[in-house]
Fold this protein.
Amino acid sequence: MFCSGANGQDVDPASGFIAAPGWQLVQSTCTTCHSSQIIVQNSGSREVWQSRIVWMQETQGLQQLAADVETTILDYLAANYGQKAATRRAGLAPHLLPTNPYDI
């Protein structure tokens, strides 16, 4: 049984993962080392998620993944936790910035 998330997608209530193709593989592979919340609170392009996997393999002891497993995981993560349009708020308008004492 799934609950509905804020964006109308089904979410696994135990893990918080969006219930889309590949979520169970992500859950069984990734949560052996860390909480699912580490994943659902992050975002990134396919390349960003790939770099995180490589980093975990090189520095955290993650085993080499079979090509089909890695592809499924990356497909799921990129589709459901992809790069957000904006990760920071917009900067202040120039007229609202304080005077820079180092500008001469």
About this structure: Residues 1 and 84 are 28 Å apart (CA to CA).
